[in-house]
Write a structure and sequence with these properties.
CATH superfamily: Metal-dependent hydrolases
Strand order of the largest sheet: 4-5-6-7-8
Structural class: alpha/beta
CATH architecture: Alpha-Beta Barrel
Helix content: 25-40%
Radius of gyration: 17 Å
Number of helices: 9
CATH class: Alpha Beta
Length: about 270
């Protein structure tokens, strides 16, 4: 175990996955290899990399190529990169998805936090990418900031036996969690928000339980307590696991087993 990272796992040999981390981000340019080493030493064995748009593809590919046993890329167009005309961007996403090198279609969805101008375009882009996922038998990794209702309506309309996925950065109420779980092959992405005293997610998970959860950081964003406000990284996954264990009355070992099995089922990796 790294001497510089104290984590709450009682057994370092436990295997955890970070199912959503932008580890190719420029914010890791100064210490990316050291950061990956810290995470692996903390028990995090695999890292799933969501794409954002054209500008993130090269760096994401480079990281996945450098660590093919640990880093797995996704392909999708992030809703915050959707504008008036998305034809060329979506054509690129579809072309790349059909190469077969990706573990998921993501990160895709709807974001109404910053701007509602392109809601129709976001809905159209999301639905198109969901349909590619069904055709290619890939999971979808969903971004739904301030848009849970809009997003889950499309997912429910498109849902069939070929569709599976995760609601990334889930922060909703118990009734929203149950609506996701009712989709059958969908999971709740639990990240640093569960450690925030006023985040509300701890209380939701206490009521819902961990059976449909996967763990994520969304690194470099949304660092958990005690690192809140700093750059997030995958070595902090054990803090999220420990808080989910506390919320649900389980051991950290149980949380590791449940969430890792769910991630393996979701991504087939």
């Amino acid at each position: 175990m790294s001497a510089t990272f104290a984590h709450p796992l009682s057994t370092p040999a436990l295997v955890l996955f970070d199912t959503h981390a932008h580890l190719y981000s420029k914010q890791f340019d100064g210490d990316r290899e050291a950061m990956l080493t810290r995470a692996i030493e903390a028990g995090v064995g695999k890292f799933f990399l969501p794409n954002v748009d054209h500008d993130s593809i090269e760096a994401m590919h480079a990281l996945a190529d450098a660590h093919p046993d640990h880093c797995f890329p996704m392909m999708g167009l992030h809703p915050c990169s959707v504008g008036e005309d998305n034809g060329a961007a979506l054509e690129e996403v579809e072309r790349l998805l059909r190469t077969g090198r990706y573990c998921a279609v993501g990160e895709i969805g709807i974001d109404l936090y910053w701007d509602k101008t392109w809601l129709r375009q976001q809905q159209d882009a999301f639905r198109r990418q969901v349909r590619w996922a069904k055709e290619l038998r890939l999971p979808i990794v969903i971004h739904c900031r301030e848009s849970f209702g809009e997003v889950i309506t499309i997912v429910e309309e498109e849902n069939d036996d070929s569709l599976r996925g995760v609601f990334h950065c889930f922060t909703g109420a118990p009734e929203q969690a149950r609506r996701v779980i009712a989709l059958k092959d969908f999971h709740l992405g639990i990240g640093g928000v569960i450690t925030y005293p006023k985040g509300g997610l701890f209380e939701t998970m206490r009521e819902v339980g961990p059976e449909h959860c996967v763990l994520e950081t969304d690194a470099p964003y949304l660092a958990p307590v005690p690192y809140r406000g700093k750059r997030n990284e995958s070595s902090y996954i054990p803090h999220i696991a420990a808080r989910l264990a506390e919320a649900t009355g389980r051991s950290v070992e149980e949380i590791a087993r449940i969430t890792t099995a769910n991630a393996e089922l979701l991504f087939r990796r």
